[in-house]
Amino acid sequence: MKQVWVKVIPWQKKLVTTAIEGGADAILVEKGKTEAVHALGRIKTIAPDGDLKIDKDVIFAEIKSKEDEERVLKLTKTAIVVVTAKDWKIIPLENLVAQTNNLFAEAATVEEAKTLLGVLEKGVDGILVNTTNINELKKILDLVKKWSEKLELYSGKVTLIKPLGMGYRVCVDTCDLMEIGEGMLIGNSSASMFLVHAENIENPYVSPRPFRVNAGPVHAYIKVPGNKTKYLSELKAGDEVLIVNAKGETRTGIVGRVKVERRPLLLVEAEVDGQKVSTILQNAETIRLTTPKGKPISVVQLKPGDEVVVAMEKGGRHFGHKIEETIMEK
Description:
Elements: E1 3-7, H1 13-21, E2 26-28, H2 34-38, E3 44-47, E4 52-53, E5 58-62, H3 66-75, E6 80-84, H4 93-99, E7 103-107, H5 110-118, E8 126-129, H6 134-146, E9 153-174, E10 182-189, E11 192-197, E12 212-217, E13 221-224, E14 228-231, E15 240-245, E16 250-272, E17 275-282, E18 288-290, E19 296-298, E20 307-312, E21 316-318, E22 321-323
Helix pairs in contact: 1-6, 5-6
């Protein structure tokens, strides 16, 4: 997930409060101002005496030559580096983005921020906002907090729907509201998942709960930010999950509550180019998968041949991190 820091040098209280209200991850201030920031909200400071210390945790580097570029690459191995250059046409930012992480860059306008975030479709890891224009600051904060990499999703053809016995399933309640076509990626395997739709559909039996995804059993994987996965049983209040729509657009949601209850279950299998995808869901009318057109389809109406949205990837995972090794999950 991209981060956004705000430079408040010289001190301006309005900039700090705007940054905090807009979801900034940290504030760059002069020495001696950390306590003043903390008095306004819980947020990290970057300063010689801050939560993140300048020249130790965070290093500022201007790039003027190839030698500077090589020095930055070394520095990013142990610290976050905020880079600037008088002319990025001479020292292409692509060179740095392609070779390292822990890379931030300054932006004074929303257009500059868009460019920095989109370099090589990977972008810098964070933006340091350097403007005293409150409206521009708000625009950049909104841009960065909503920015996400697009996932490649596929259309899977349903091959099996099989009622099972009882088991413990997990409802993920977030501090967000999901729209039609949105949900979370859930699966029996970390390499293949279904887009399970949010419970935001009108129903004669129960009110819509647009903050909830009835995700699946305790053993299942869920996609979380940072191209990682977790077991549903691991989730707890305050964790981050990935909210996904049928187009592959993503955003971060915060878990507010996890409900684990014993319910009747259902096995669903599908195929994509001969590769099997499977998950287990609660056997209930309110549980839905998502069609390639972004429409919800209830598991009780599901039949072989129906097409639903799935995510596929190569390689396995070790403690939620993607790795390249032979792992078979059946």
